[in-house]
Amino acid sequence: MYPLKRESPSQLVTPPVNLVLINPKKNTEIDEENRRLIARVAPVCLAYDLHLWLANFGTKKTPLDFAESIAPSTSIGKGGEDFIEICKKGKVNFTDLQLPQNIGLQIICTNLPDKSKEKNIEEIVKISEENTIAFLFGISQRTNKAIKKIKDNAHAHLDITNKKIRLSLDSEIGAVCHSFFITRKA
After folding, report:
1. Neighbours of 22 (CB within 10 A)
2. Residue 99 phi, psi dihedral angles, 5° rounding
3. What is the pLDDT of residues 129-184, one digit of tens each?
């Protein structure tokens, strides 16, 4: 997936980690709840050096134009400045529900994992050592054929609680990112 090996061992590169927010319904206009969610996720992306992908958000703007248009409407993430900052670093992308191959191995974050695909955080960290990975989060509980296909085609499913407990989206994103990076450093 991602080139790791170079001429010498000192040139090994850790593959990037993507955080993907999936909107199961196509919006032509980003509503207040979505603006707030994006503003709350931006500082997490900065803190953990994540790339942010917004899937099926229905905007034709560039990431930076989009960030600058929604920033004035929120006080979260330093008034949207964190979102603008990750855009300026080139770490925000838009896609439709046909997720691109370069997004990495897809890890669905869910409290209802498919037993045959279920992995724990230690297994996900091991996978990430040699592959770009993408943590996928649905922004609502709504599902459709495209979402079902993404879930079925995902490389792995992760229940961060290991107890099938449904967390709020903010809590789940925070728990996944924190657990992943703490385990990765150990």
Report:
1. 22
2. -65, 135
3. 999 999 999 987 767 788 888 999 999 999 999 999 999 999 999 999 999 999 99
Closest CA to 107 of 90, 86, 123: 123
pLDDT in tens, 81-119: 899 999 999 999 999 888 998 999 999 999 999 999 999
- Burial 45-79, CB ≥16 within 10 A → b, else e: bbeeebbbbbbbbebeeebeebbeebbeebebbbe
Residue 82's closest CA among 40, 118, 124?
Answer: 40
Residue whose tokens read 């994103």: 173
Quote the longest CA-to-CA distance of the chain: 49
**pTM recorded for the entire structure:** 0.88
Q: Are 38 and 69 in contact (CB under 8 A)?
A: no
